[in-house]
Design goal:
Blueprint: H1 7-23, H2 28-45, H3 51-62, H4 65-79
Helix pairs in contact: 2-3, 2-4
Length: 85
């Protein structure tokens, strides 16, 4: 089972990666830029696996680059307290 199959598992996975990035000293700006790059890749290359991902993909597809950066930043905020710790 892929982490993309289940929304909570996906959020936990992202939360773990965010914690690792922050613990290694990565700045908030770098984290948000990486989140944007990952979101762009997923939107273009990966078929959404659940309803939440479908909504995000639809929003991403109609968003301007600035709005896409905002979506990526909101995803970072969403998973800040998620993860397996």
């Amino acid at each position: 089972m892929s982490v993309l199959d289940n929304w909570q598992q996906w959020k936990d996975f992202l939360g773990d990666r965010l914690n690792q990035a922050q613990n290694s000293g990565m700045s908030k700006e770098v984290v948000n830029d990486l989140a944007y790059q990952i979101g762009d890749y997923l939107a273009k290359q990966v078929e959404p696996k659940n309803e939440q991902e479908k909504i995000l993909a639809d929003l991403w597809s109609v968003a301007s680059p600035e709005e896409q950066h905002a979506i990526a930043s909101m995803m970072v905020k969403l998973v800040q307290n998620d993860g397996t710790h």
